[in-house]
């Protein structure tokens, strides 16, 4: 709570923690209020990421609540995308890139030595900025991942369920054999979401999933996310702050204090708090568009 | 600075709001003078201000709505727009009440008065005006330290309210003034109490604007601090 006894300037100076990993120092990385069910989707502890000797993000600690949408915002180059790629071990596929720290999915440390990154990526799916459907039919785009993972169930049912979850079924149910590349950009992105859902992940990571889409397609993706969180944990990187405000339950603000420094999780709190009365001046300056 | 135009629009909006507040202050000043000097002509000048203030208030609210639609404000910008709308309402309401009182002064010109009640009314009018001016000043300077003192000043208005109501209900033998004057005096007492409350709320808005907290919460925190200090023996 803001200390009423101090002037605005005093508060700004004295109440900024030395190293902020969340809104409240004593519960770093955990903005969750007492009383809410404590279902934890992922726990990130002291995560740092490197490209060779360059440290891109440092010491990020964050609890990601299950069945909620967590948005990550921040100026370009602050490490949001790097961070989200660390959450399903995609970061390390870049030559020279590595991560340090702990990332727990449930009880499992996804960076433990005996863990297969491919299995992790199945449990933590990812949707990218640009839709990238395979050059296959709509049906095969959805079925392919499940098939190579040895899915033994009713494939037609899985495809239909996944497309429905991604709010695309009604638009494509009559042309499942047509190429996925023939769909509009917004439909392609929802096809990619359906493809991600078909392997039945626990967490879905989205890296600016609507930034290349028109407003109507963007709205459909946002509506999709509202549905997705009923069954999945969703983490989304977005440059569109209004989108973060509209769709997310929690928001993390990444920030680089000085040029050349690594990105840090500067503030993490409930979305309504972050967009109405954030604790830190830099967050307020960013969300009000005064920099970045 | 990015969003320079938006910032200019916000500054302009705030400036319009403070200008409206200063005009209401001037109306209240005339109201007090008219009561002090029993000068209905001074009060007469304020007849019609209500419509003008309402129009000004509507202009400010329209601008707030346009800025919300065009700029999608968040955080301190959102708090500012919300506060401007709320303060506008308090200012316009105070202006309306001021005109009601001026109407009463004009309508009861030359009527017999109760001297004790009139003294209480004038004192209450001065105090309510002071609370309103102070509230506007607290808001103008975002001086949240002074915001909590407003409540104490408003308490004096509440005391005068009780005193005046007592005199209205229990006029001295052979006194009490003309019935219409006494009836208008009762309404005036009520209006003055409301003006003072609006002043307190205008000042309290500064707390929300700066901290995002309601003044009631902030006051509780302040009281809790005193309890803590008492517990420490400090």
Describe this structure in words.
The complex is a heterodimer of chains A (292) and B (234). Chain A has helices at residues 8-14, 80-86, 117-123, 138-148, 155-165, 169-172, 185-198, 215-228, 241-247, 271-276, 281-287; strands at 40-51, 54-65, 69-73, 97-105, 108-109, 124-127, 203-207, 233-237, 250-255, 264-270. Chain A is globular and about 50 Å long. Chain A has one domain: 3-Layer(aba) Sandwich (Rossmann fold), CATH 3.40.50. Chain A is an alpha/beta fold and 292 residues long. Residues 1-28 of chain A have low confidence and may be disordered. In chain A, 33% of the residues lie in helices and 23% in strands. Chain A has a six-stranded mixed sheet with strand order 6-7-8-3-9-10, with helices on both faces. Chain B has one domain (4-232): Phosphate transport system protein phou homolog 2, domain 2 (Methane Monooxygenase Hydroxylase, Chain G, domain 1, Up-down Bundle). Helix content of chain B is 85%, strand content 0%. Chain B contains eight helices and no strands. In chain B, helix 6 runs antiparallel to helix 7. In chain B, 42% of the residues are buried. Classes of the chains: A alpha/beta (292), B mainly alpha (234). The interface between A and B is medium-sized, with 23 and 25 residues.
